[in-house]
Amino acid sequence: MAPGRIWEAEQRRTRVLRRTISFRELARDNGNMLPELESERLLLRPRSLGDIDAIAGMNTDPAVMKHIAAIDDPAMSPEAVAARSFSHVERGLGYWSVFAKAKPVEFLGYVGLIPDGDAAEDVQLSYRFTVASWGQGYAREAAARLLRHGFEALALSAIAITTHPLNLASLRLAERLGFSPAPMDPTILIGYPAVIATRFRLTRETWRGLNPPAA
């Protein structure tokens, strides 16, 4: 390898190492700020650096990414996933990796509560699951558990969903969780090629009406 190429390769390795160290420090400092959650069949664990490869692998599956982004989108790379994974945990927001209680080491996907714009009170529900886990109700169960955490523990006033207008599974999930259609914003795009995203919103009052406290 020519000296110039050797230098460039070393510089790339150095940059990756620095990013990895910073991600580890961020995860170490903030990793215990989100609680572990569970539902009837599932364990929701705060995302760790050990989950990044599984998430990035899911992001290369054309079936998973059909209505989200191109599989070679830099925003879906391991480095990009790691960079945004722990950015808002001091607010109680972030991502939870989902595992079945029956197979607690098998990654099924993730759910998250993440910022939905510039206002601190604006939060959206995020979710993505492996193809192998589809059709078993895991997304609905995990999302329902995280909504309860958002409305009860975090006292959020409302939660949004942003999805592709042709993602029928996601549209059905939003409806089953009690979300109502929200105005579309032409600046919020999704998919490849990009289209204007479909938006939903669920208020805490509506959620409480659908999920009354146990007697």
How would you portray this structure in words?
There is one protein chain. The chain is α+β, with helices and mostly antiparallel strands and 215 residues long. 37% of the residues lie in helices and 25% in strands. The protein has 7 helices and 10 strands. Strand 4 (103-115) and strand 5 form a beta hairpin. The radius of gyration is 18 Å and the shape is globular. The model is unreliable at 9-18 (pLDDT under 50).
Give keywords:
three-stranded antiparallel β-sheet; 215 residues; alpha+beta; 37% helix; five-stranded antiparallel β-sheet
Summarize the structure.
With 215 residues, the chain is of the alpha+beta class.
Distance between the termini: 72 Å
Mean of the pLDDT scores?
89
Number of strands: 10
**Segments where pLDDT lies below 50 for 5+ residues?**
9-18
| CA gyration radius, whole angstroms | 18 Å
Strand content: 15-25%
Structural class: alpha+beta
Secondary-structure element order, N to C: HEEHHHEEEHEHEEEEH
Shape type: globular
Number of discrete helical segments: 7
Topology, element by element:
Layout: H1 3-30, E1 37-38, E2 42-46, H2 52-58, H3 62-65, H4 78-85, E3 94-100, E4 103-115, E5 123-129, H5 138-153, E6 158-163, H6 168-176, E7 180-182, E8 189-190, E9 195-196, E10 198-203, H7 204-210
Antiparallel strand pairs: 1-2, 2-3, 3-4, 4-5, 6-10, 7-10, 8-9
